[in-house]
């Protein structure tokens, strides 16, 4: 079966079957062995895998009519086994980011986009889900400027015209870019296949460039490659907000890191002396904004470039970076200078590092 025929069937038969089988609107259960539901979950993945053997090798295609109960509208997601991995080891569209087809409730169009799951974000930032998802979409667009050659920003598309589904509205806002297909005028098979091939290229580039990362909790941020679970959420959010601003001038930060010889300007730690061959470049160190701009983040636009100079930054090891934030948090976000912070570090510790 062709991709065009698959999408058309999904977009024109779902709502009729859903309405026909629902006996309790509050609990729209899928009848056991329902043919359309089984076709969606079992056959659609096979169709995509057969049509895109090379592009989808190693990926997992998920298509859903609902898990026991009909969803409001069906979708097809292409998942990377690591990017969309839940803490329990299950690969799920609730996590990470991925290419996805979503049919609108009225079956008038299909949105093909690079979307995001919200499970991990909701787990770590329960009061800031919308902001984190929107930030993730912005970061993907910033890291993948090539998207403009084939796709557009679709984050304002209305999948639910009656605006009754807040979850659907939030998910759409989290989509980075894509295309809108009119169901009655679907593109040719060739165009649909080319769109997916181009989307997969961008998706793989997104992985190479750190994905949604600048403000997301599980990011490979501007200058750190670590999962931040285990630290206080507020401190992590402060550092991530700081990294969003630092990102605006990567050349300056790169030069400052080099100038510091990739050595912590607080405790004197140099990763190479401790870990040896930890990377080819041996250039790991984190940039700390001495006056954290999260204090005035309402005045900062994510895409706004801000003028910064070397005096605004300190190069810190990951431990010192978090400790200075922890101290500032304890003192109600009072700015702690580099010299003051250095004085707080145990002298014996600094002396031991000097001996390495």
Indicate the CATH topology of the largest domain. Answer: Metal Transport, Frataxin, Chain A
The general outline is elongated
Q: Return the average pLDDT rounded to an integer.
A: 82
**Total domains, how many?**
2
What is the secondary structure topology, with strand pairs?
Layout: H1 3-21, H2 35-51, E1 60-64, E2 75-79, E3 97-103, E4 109-116, H3 119-124, H4 129-143, H5 166-173, E5 178-182, H6 189-208, E6 220-221, E7 224-225, H7 233-246, H8 250-259, H9 271-275, E8 286-289, E9 313-316, H10 318-330, H11 338-344, H12 347-355
Antiparallel strand pairs: 1-2, 2-3, 3-4, 4-5, 6-7, 8-9
Helix pairs in contact: 1-2, 7-10
Any overview of this molecule?
With 356 residues, the protein is α+β, with helices and mostly antiparallel strands. The strands form three sheets. The protein has a five-stranded antiparallel sheet with strand order 1-2-3-4-5. Mean pLDDT is 82; it is low at 215-232 and 294-306. The chain has helices at 3-21, 35-51, 119-124, 129-143, 166-173, 189-208, 233-246, 250-259, 271-275, 318-330, 338-344, 347-355, and strands at residues 60-64, 75-79, 97-103, 109-116, 178-182, 220-221, 224-225, 286-289, 313-316. It folds into two domains: 3-208, Metal Transport, Frataxin, Chain A (2-Layer Sandwich), CATH 3.30.920.90; 222-355, no CATH class.
Which properties best describe this structure?
single chain; 356 residues; alpha+beta; Metal Transport, Frataxin, Chain A; 2 domains; five-stranded antiparallel β-sheet; two-stranded antiparallel ribbon; 40% helix; elongated
